[in-house]
User: What shape does this take?
Amino acid sequence: EWQINDLFGIHLEADYYNWGDDTIAHRSNIESEVSMSINLQEKIKVFPSIRYLGSRDVFIENMTDLISLNPQLHANISIDYNYTSSISAFLRINNITNSRKEIWNGYKEIGVNAVFGISYSF
Assistant: This one.
C-alpha cells in the first residue's frame, strides 16, 4: 500500500495458493486486486478498483467429474461523501463491466449492481 500524497493512494493485493496435487472446489490459485484512493478535500473519497479471480475447478453432479469455471475480472467504484463528522453517504457500483460468468456451477453473476446508503452517528 502506497500513499503517494494527500490526494492519491494505491493499494495492491495478490494471493497465490499452491494446492499441490489436491483439488479445492471453487478456490482459485490466483486472486488479486488493485485499487486507488482519491481524496477530494476530505469531503469526497473515490475508490476505483479492479479485481481478478483466476479459474476454479468445481465438481459436478456425481462429485467425481471436474469442470473449470472461467476467470473473472471485475471493475468496481466506491464513492464516499462526508457531509459532517456525523452525516455521510456512500455509493458502491460493482461489476461495472457487467460480467455474467458463473461464480458457482450453474449460478451466474448478477451483472452491474449498486448500493447506496446514508449513515448518521450520534
Q: What stands out?
A: Residues 63 and 79 are 42 Å apart (CA to CA). The chain is about 0% helix and 60% strand. The radius of gyration is 18 Å.
